[in-house]
Amino acid sequence: MASPERPAREFIIHGLTKDGRTFRPSDWAERLAGAMSCFRPGSAGKAGIGAFIGYSPYCVPTTVGNTKAVIVNEALRDIEPMAWDFVVNFARDNDLQMGEVCALPEPKRP
User: Fold this and answer.
1) What is the extent of the structural domain holding 92?
2) Which of 17, 51, 98, 100 sits between 20 and 30 A of 63, alpha carbons compared?
């Protein structure tokens, strides 16, 4: 669980299987992130005309090199445990590579 002392971690799901094959379909990252788009800060009860259009900040599609990927923030687990389980099980069921995102500190300016 995230706290002010320990911020939420981020994980990346790579579009490569554990044996190195490219995962298909080619738009899998956008589809997965689209399914999670309703999970966002302040979205409780937002539907219809007042709903947001776009990806959730907790599940964002991206590209690493030439490989599709999805960045998943563990805050999703606190907001909706079933959504977290869906994303993690998607990666596990499709034998996709998953790891923790490592943020490098900003370089100090002279």
Assistant:
1) 10-100
2) 51
Our count of domains for the chain comes to 1
Q: What is the DSSP string of 18-51?
A: TTSPBPSSTTHHHHHHHHTTT--TT-TT--GGG-
Do the domain assignments include residue 81?
Answer: yes
Alpha-carbon dihedral 53, 79, 72, 43, rounded to 10 degrees:
10
Per-residue pLDDT reduced to its tens digit, 16-58? 999 999 999 999 999 999 999 888 776 555 555 555 568 889 9
For helices 28-35 and 81-93, angle between their N-to-C axes, nearest 10 degrees: 160
Tell me whether residue 106 is in a domain.
no
CATH classification of the domain holding 37: 3.30.70.2340
